[in-house]
Amino acid sequence: MSERDNVHYKVAEAARMAGVSASTLRLWESQGLVVPGRSDTGHRQYSADDVARLKKIAWYRTERGLNPAAIRQALDSEGAGLEAGAAMTVVDGDASLGVGRKFRALRHAAGRTLDQVAGDIGIATSVLSTFERTSQGVTFRVMHDLAEYYGTTVSKLSGEDEAELRSLVRAGEWKFWPETSPGVTVQVLADGRNMMDCHRFVLSPGASSDGAYRHEGEEFIHVLSGRFEMVLDGDEFHDLGPGDSLYFDSRRHHSWRNRHDGETVLIWINTPPTF
């Protein structure tokens, strides 16, 4: 039995990795889309394969707009897993773990200890240690602050500018940032070393930046669905709905959150790629 087979996740952990709520996971179970295992005490346990299936379900629901019956049929069809995996190009498993290892390598190169970096960033040492080992458990703001601390960007550490340049990216063929921040899914709309970071954000209910950050450049946001709140410099509030756009200087402190009780989807462009 491999180490992957021994890994099991609780409901909240599996939901975070799939970018949905725990109640959504229970709904999918009642619909027969996923059947988690049970611990000796009767609690749900999700394997790595279960989490991969959850991500496929989320993709079919969000990107294809399929209902539960259609999702079930797609998953059960011959080759459905390969089709969804190829279309999503989801970065999970070992690839996702690489982001945490990259941050750990940067810390070692800087000659800093876990306690030193955690203290400088303002997070618990245990949080930083877990992130370096699993690439999970830090917020979007903390990801930015860590990258800035080491003189790099989240985009570079995610391997975005290492990819071969693609001038055309078809719907559903996006690459994904590793899912490190709870409820935040980032889809890459333009590969390669470009002058712009072009992303499609899918935010689960309650997802937020967890604080303000800033960097060089300019940003453009266009909301496709849901409700999105952006706060600039702590006192300028923008409540954005479908069709609304916002352009601002990235050097302004900015924080954000999903204000919708469902998913919020938006286009987010940053130039130059300094996030």
UniProtKB/TrEMBL annotation:
The keyword Isomerase does not apply. Signal peptide: none annotated. Residues 8-77 form the HTH merR-type domain. Residues 103-157 form the HTH cro/C1-type domain. The keyword DNA-binding applies. Pfam families: Cupin_2 (PF07883), HTH_31 (PF13560), MerR_1 (PF13411). Keywords: DNA-binding. PANTHER family: HTH-TYPE TRANSCRIPTIONAL REGULATOR, METHYLPHOSPHONATE SYNTHASE. This is MerR family transcriptional regulator. It comes from Mycoplana rhizolycopersici.
